[in-house]
Design brief:
It is built from 32 helices and 37 strands. With about 1100 residues, the protein is of the alpha+beta class. Strand 5 and strand 6 form a beta hairpin. This is 4-hydroxyphenylpyruvate dioxygenase. Belongs to the 4HPPD family.
């Protein structure tokens, strides 16, 4: 069984005498084969339930089939009744805007004390505007009826409920309350509708006109929301061939009512001022769920599906809809029903309607005309004088395509008029459709008017009359995209209508509001298997099966609250992932490689702003630096207000130590809430340090480091106060980890155990103790020699090495004699593995021409592979070099590399470990490559090797500062063509290679390059010498060896790194080296 909640909460027409209404119709899945019958006879048995497809197939796959299945005779649209607050003014505006004539009315002047109602007509179109009178006046009239006084003969609709009408207007504004259908018999239509699930609102009532004696029957059932479907019929004697059945009651002696609406309305004399509107083409409704609503309509009326559309059909990207068009046997009564779609960039306009209308209702009314160009000119002329405004015109690109699509159907003049008037054009396999939409005609963006003209589809009916088939030209499927764009543009100007469906930038409290929403949605799962920071959601699990359940839970919650995710930015089923600048895996947490590389290659700050930028980047990863606050202190002092920038030796040292600490970071453990935490603290007169850790097997692994300079006012305090201050600051810093959990604080000072026994304490100490007492802890004493980490954090500021200008003045390398004779090479670590498995860049640069080759290679490339890359990418093209300059990478110091160089007749020149600037060309090239890559790689950075050819081309074709010519031109002897040559052609033609002129020009180019390189070297030496100092060496050969052995013994007792460990073998090697 299927159920729908389309039943309304009252529609405003009388429900006196109506059947008791169920909360929602229950739809059965029973079906029965249908046969073609007389269109005026019910085609379905009483127990048959008509079904519609339970899944939309879209316009392309939809097959229309008219089974003539109406349950009662339907002749066409009769009227549309609007409820409003002021019938006079609303009707006058509609009359002026659309050229409709007021024909009849009912109000106080006719004795109607319940409501005012005015009727407008144009062709076969009838609009009724009804507004209830005041509560006091209505209550007086109704009270008189209840007391047995005369009825209300002057009220055309005897069961009108003013309170329901008033409630309808408050809820929906000016909106359609009733869709009137002219049927063969209102009683039969009501009976068939309610028998097949229709919700009865007004049982059949016979109305008699007091003036003419004409008779009209009406009845009402729910359509959708608060809108009713009103059946209207006039008794007439049918001819023999039109007889419905033998059971129909005789109608002899009944005079049919001939008025435009209901009996007992007073005619109004008004001039005819038509603009050419002829009939109601279709009435469109919006509902939250399409299929249950369509099923309900099909069941009670027998209407068949005429067309359907899905979001993909209408070609919209930002928003969309699903739609089904229901039609009677004649296909002259067309009733499209829409539902919103979700998951698009913007909220569907259908959803906007449902929110402003507070539920289902009629969205727009399509009115047909005979000459849309004439009608539209007249309506547009009245727009600025109180008429209706129209939606923004479609784009020029849309109208540019019209001649190609519709040139055979419309003349060039007509196509030009379409563009000028903003008319949209569409076509199906039967005819042509011209259409345009007004802006909302009321205060809310809920009710629109569509003006259309259908061309073609003419046929001769059984009476010999030429008529047009219903729905000719379709419903503007090809125009949906432009229509939605127009509505979107309109909504942007309608402040109360426009609604953000994503969090906008720049609004105060936007981020806090969004974070609060995320916390509310995932409240029950936060820190259990999901972590959310704004729009970054991290889901973590212990197994694949558990992870699938967690992902499903998160996505279901997002869908439930109407949030959507960008699939392109999502990653699933990963054992390692980047999150908020960190790499998270089962091993632990580490900084993102790309960020570490950025810090490693950060240039020397030249301004206070650059110092702040560097500290900002490093500060984000301060949890990984054991002594961050004390190491960064000299640089932090430079950022104080009114402090001049003076990069002293102390600041230079801090800059280098920070970079080294982050490049050689430690992998932090992901905290496990099931394990106890261990907090290790220490304090000295210079600073405090603390480590938060947990046991990982037999090893104690850090979770986070923190350190803080000791405030000057606390430096003179006693030892136990400083130790207590260190513990206090650590507990406050890690409050979110420790409060409410049992943990072990460790310190190397036992005074903390008996501090509470002191007879007198300072107020600050008392406050610290009060905070510490909030925690569940067991204090452990740790000897200083086992508390090395916290000790280092607290005392490293005291033991900070003094830095001086580097010793020795720089000397430039000799300029090579020509191209291809000497070059530098280096390996650049990008810290990012590409999709093809590459991580390093093999950089080769010619020492004379500065021409470079950039070759991607794996991180684990062996010497044999490097030699092959070198031969394939350099030797093959430029021959064997005389000199190769490189650092002391293990591959360059290997025997295989040296043997290869010997075979090529090349001399190897390697820099010392302390002076990498000797290979400055390659090191400078590394910085250039990294800078250029930033502009071209994707955010994921895994395509950097695909961009290397472009980077090399950019570099080699740019003018080099040291030669004043591009590397390509100097290396090749001629200038390769580029895109700029088309914009800035050279006036002088290039010489032909091999000619005397070419040789002279190339020799001149080489000579000029040498002169420029000499000047560049002199400028570089002068600049660098300012930061270095000259040295005078004095050799004392007798004591040199003993001094070095003593130094190595000291290093052995206080090791810094395994590669500096002292050994007997190294001592012997040193001895032989010094002795020689």
């Amino acid at each position: 069984m299927l159920s729908t909640s389309m039943g309304p909460s009252g529609n405003g027409m009388a429900n006196g005498g109506a059947e008791t209404r169920a909360s929602a119709p229950v739809l059965s899945s029973k079906t029965q084969s249908l046969t073609t019958q007389d269109p005026r006879k019910p085609a379905l048995d009483a127990d048959t339930t008509k079904t519609v497809p339970q899944k939309l197939v879209g316009h392309k796959n939809f097959v229309r089939e008219n089974l003539k299945s109406d349950r009662f005779v339907v002749k066409g649209f009769h009227h549309l009744e609007f409820y409003c607050g002021d019938a006079l003014n609303v009707s006058h505006r509609f009359a002026w805007a659309m050229g409709m004539r007021e024909t009849v009315l009912s109000n106080l002047t006719t004795g109607n004390h319940l409501y005012s109602s005015r009727v407008l007509q144009s062709g076969d179109i009838t609009f009724v505007f009804t507004a209830p009178y005041s509560k006091q006046l209505c209550a007086k009239e109704l009270s008189a009826v209840e007391q047995g006084q005369d009825g209300l003969p002057a009220v055309p609709h005897p069961h009108f409920n003013p309170e329901n009408a008033r409630s309808f207007f408050d809820k929906h504004g000016v909106a359609v309350a009733a869709v009137g259908l002219l049927v063969g018999d209102a009683a039969t239509a009501y009976e068939e509708s309610t028998k097949h699930g229709g919700i009865g609102m007004l049982k059949p009532v016979r109305l008699v006109d007091a003036t003419t004696g004409g008779v009209m029957d009406i009845s009402e059932v729910v359509l959708y929301g608060d809108v009713v479907l009103r059946y209207v019929s006039t008794p007439e004697l049918p001819s023999d061939d039109e007889s419905m059945d033998d059971e129909q009651p005789p109608r002899e002696g009944l005079k049919p009512f001939q008025g435009p609406f209901l009996p007992n309305y007073r005619p109004v004399e008004a001039p005819i001022c038509t603009l050419g509107l002829t009939n109601i083409d279709h009435v469109v409704g919006n509902v939250p769920q399409l299929l249950p609503a369509v099923q309900y309509i099909a069941n009670m009326t027998g209407f068949h599906e005429f067309a359907e559309f899905v979001a993909e059909d209408v070609g919209t990207v930002d928003s969309g809809l699903n739609s089904m068009v229901m039609a009677d046997n004649s296909e002259k009564v067309l009733m499209p029903v829409n539902e919103p779609t979700f998951g698009t960039k913007r909220q569907s306009q259908i959803q906007t309607y449902l929110e402003h209308n507070e539920g289902p209702g009629v969205q727009h009314i399509a009115l047909a005309c005979d000459d849309i160009f004439h009608t539209l000119r007249q309506m547009r002329a009245r727009s600025s004088m109180g008429g209706f405004e129209f939606m923004p015109r479609a784009s020029d690109a849309y109208y540019k395509c019209l001649p190609e699509k519709f040139g055979e159907d419309l003349t060039p003049e007509q196509l030009q008029q379409c563009k000028e008037l903003g008319i949209l054009v569409d076509k199906d396999n039967q005819g042509l459709l011209l259409q345009i939409f007004t802006k909302p005609v009321g205060d809310r963006p809920t009710i629109f008017i569509e003006i259309i003209q259908r061309v073609g589809c003419m046929e001769v009916d059984k009476d010999g009359k030429v008529a047009q088939r219903g729905g000719c030209g379709g419903f503007g499927k090809g125009n949906f995209s432009e229509l939605f764009k127009s509505i979107e543009e309109f909504e942007k100007t309608f402040v109360m209508v426009y609604e953000f469906v994503v969090m906008p930038f720049g609004l105060c409290n936007a981020s806090g509001t969004f974070q609060h929403a995320m916390n509310r949605i995932f409240h029950d799962h936060l820190d259990k298997f999901v972590v959310v920071y704004l729009d970054d959601i991290l889901i973590f699990s212990k197994s694949v099966e558990e992870h699938a359940q967690h992902v499903e839970t998160v996505l279901s919650l997002l869908r439930q609250h109407k949030y959507k995710v960008n699939l392109e930015k999502c990653e699933f089923d990963r054992t390692k992932i980047l999150y908020l600048g960190h790499e998270v895996s089962a091993e632990g947490i580490r900084p993102e490689d790309a960020k570490v590389a950025s810090i490693r290659d950060w240039p020397r700050p030249q301004t206070v702003t650059e110092v702040r930028s560097f500290l900002g980047m490093c500060g984000y990863y301060r949890n990984f630096v054991k002594n961050y606050s004390t190491v960064a202190s000299p640089l932090t002092d430079l950022t104080r207000l009114d402090t001049p920038l003076d990069l002293s030796d102390e600041c230079e040292g801090a800059f280098k130590r920070l970079k080294h600490a982050l490049v050689n970071h430690e992998v932090l453990m992901v905290p496990d809430p099931q394990k106890p935490f261990i907090v290790t603290t220490d304090a000295s007169q210079y600073g405090i340090g603390a480590v938060l850790a947990q046991q990982d097997g037999k090893k104690l692994r850090p979770i986070e480091y923190t350190s803080k300079k000791m405030p000057s006012k606390k430096m003179a305090k006693s030892t136990y106060e400083r130790e207590l201050y260190a513990l206090y600051k650590a507990l406050v810093h890690w409050r979110h980890f420790l409060l409410g959990r049992f943990f072990y604080p460790r310190t190397d000072h036992q005074t903390l155990k008996w501090i509470k026994t002191q007879p007198a304490l300072f107020d600050a100490v008392k406050r610290w103790i009060e905070v510490i007492d909030q925690y569940d802890l067991k204090l452990e004493y740790l000897k200083g020699e086992y508390n090395k980490v916290a000790d280092a954090l607290s005392v490293c500021q005291r033991d900070k090495p003094r830095t001086q200008a580097p010793l020795g003045l720089l000397k430039s390398l000799p300029i090579p004699d020509g191209p291809g004779l000497s070059f530098s090479m280096d390996f650049m670590d990008t810290l990012v593995t590409s999709k093809s498995g590459k991580r390093h860049i093999f950089v080769i640069i010619d020492g004379f021409t500065k021409y470079a080759r950039l070759i991607p290679m794996p991180e684990t490339a062996r010497t044999e592979y490097v030699i092959k890359l070198f031969k394939d990418n350099w030797v093959r093209d430029f021959g064997l070099p005389k000199t190769i300059i490189s650092d002391r990478d293990v591959r360059f110091t290997s025997k295989l590399w040296k043997k290869t160089a010997e075979q090529m007749g090349s001399q190897l020149r390697m820099t010392s470990g302390n002076h990498p600037e000797a290979n400055g060309q390659a090191k400078q090239m590394n910085r250039v490559v990294q800078h250029l890559l930033r502009h071209y790689i994707k955010p994921s950075q895994d395509d950097w090797d695909e961009q290397l050819p472009r980077i090399a081309n950019l570099y080699n074709n740019a003018i080099h500062s040291s030669t004043d010519v591009s590397p390509n031109q100097l290396h090749l002897g001629w200038k390769p063509r580029s895109a700029l040559d088309f914009l800035l052609p050279e006036n002088r033609p290039a010489a032909t290679p091999g000619t005397l002129e070419y040789g002279v020009q190339y020799e001149k180019l080489l000579h000029e390059a040498v002169e420029h390189m000499k000047k560049a070297q002199q400028a570089m030496i002068a600049s660098e010498t300012q930061h270095r100092r000259q040295s005078t060496f004095q050799f004392f050969m007798i004591s040199m060896f003993d001094m070095m052995v003593a130094v190595l013994d000291n290093l052995q007792n206080h090791p810094f790194s395994p590669k500096f460990n002292y050994s007997k073998e190294s001592s012997r090697n040193l001895s032989s080296s010094v002795g020689s």
